[in-house]
Amino acid sequence: MTKKEISTAVASEPKLGFRAADYNAVATEAILLTIRLISQRFDLNMECSGNSSDWKLSYGRRVMSCTFDRDAKQVAAIIQFEVTAREGRKKALHCTADYGIMYEVPADAEEEAVKGFCKNVGRFAIYPYFRSLFAQLAWNAELMLPPLPSIASTAHIPPKKVT
Questions:
Q1: Do 23 and 117 touch, CB atoms closer than 8 A?
Q2: Using CA atoms, how far apart are residues 138 and 39, in angstroms rounded to an integer?
Q3: Are 37 and 96 in contact (CB under 8 A)?
Q4: Closest by CA position to 148, among listed 44, 61, 43
């Protein structure tokens, strides 16, 4: 194989179980159907000081599940977001929220591309809702916390190398 043939073969192989073209076909046809808060929990440790500006915040998110129903032409995921605040070694605050998201997608789409799209785009679609929920809960608890940070994306599928 020549260097160009190797580069082309490597670039066309799925990195995450699907090809870029399959993912893009889903992305151009997908229609957001719903975003729903499924559950939330906000725990405040009253033993910690009221000076929340000293707290160290950490953030997390994870996909709890993702399913594709080809017959219904729908993909759905449950994505969990969380914030934890620590005052020294003590957990001062912990907030988690599970959201459901659903898209209508082409019935003939590749399953892994559909799920990859839902997991990737779904977290960006849901995050503003979680930011708003957390801000409201923190305000109700009379905490002076900064807004949650924006989330950033890395390239989902590396671009093809040009040789």
A1: yes
A2: 17
A3: no
A4: 61
**The two three-digit tokens of residue 82, written as one number:** 């969380």
Q: Is residue 80 part of a domain?
A: yes
CATH code, domain carrying 121: 3.10.420.10
Provide, for the chain, the percentages of residues in helix, strand and coil under a 3-state DSSP scheme, each rounded to the nearest 5.
35, 35, 35
Task: Tell me how far apart the alpha carbons of residues 127 and 147 are, in angstroms, rounded to a whole number.
Answer: 12
Query: Does residue 152 belong to any structural domain of this protein?
Result: no
Element (H, E) at 118: helix 111-140
pLDDT values of the chain reduced to their tens digit, one per residue, 163 residues = 444 544 444 444 445 688 999 999 999 999 999 999 999 999 999 988 767 878 999 999 999 999 999 999 999 999 999 999 999 899 999 999 999 999 999 999 999 999 999 999 999 999 999 999 999 999 999 998 989 998 876 555 555 666 6
d(CA 28, CA 22): 10
